[in-house]
Amino acid sequence: MYLSFIDTTERQVVNQTPFGQAIAAIAAQAADLLHDAGHPFGWHDGGCRILAEALQTWSEGTLQLGCSGRDQAGPPSHFFAVLETQPGMPSLCIDADGLALEHEFLEKIRFFEMSHESIIAVYPGDAPASAEIIRDPDLSARVAALCSERIGPFQGWRADLLQRGLAAGQEYVADSAADAERMAAIDGMRL
């Protein structure tokens, strides 16, 4: 079960959930707000933190600010919103492309950015960020209001997100364990 996947022919993310589709549509609409505010970039090349903070505001703090980077020591290179489904299970990651489990999210970044990002689930607020990543609290508030206007309050989506995220996460964990067992069996057969 995938929450989203990459259509490599069209070079785009395909959302498998109504929530992911709704967020991607809002991000597309809100891109005009980004440019109207004088920002010469999009959600994936400087505006990611503006959108992530908008989602955090819209969720009234339920979503946390997450970030990824090319290594743990360097500054974050992408911001997104994070929803933990259950301790020990993959978290949900939300950005302008929609909704994904952690591994789907990393695959997307690696495909589009051609980089080897590692995920940091929750952004430590005092950590430095890349100078290319801009904060604009006023614009974040406007995008949060747009979310409320277009798709209602976050709490109306939360239960479905947790259910879908937990089911997809459990399937991913089970598949990963089965893959590890198969690889161990193959390694055991080698001379």
TrEMBL record:
It comes from the Bacteria. This is Uncharacterized protein. The lineage of its organism: Bacteria, Pseudomonadati, Pseudomonadota, Gammaproteobacteria, Pseudomonadales.
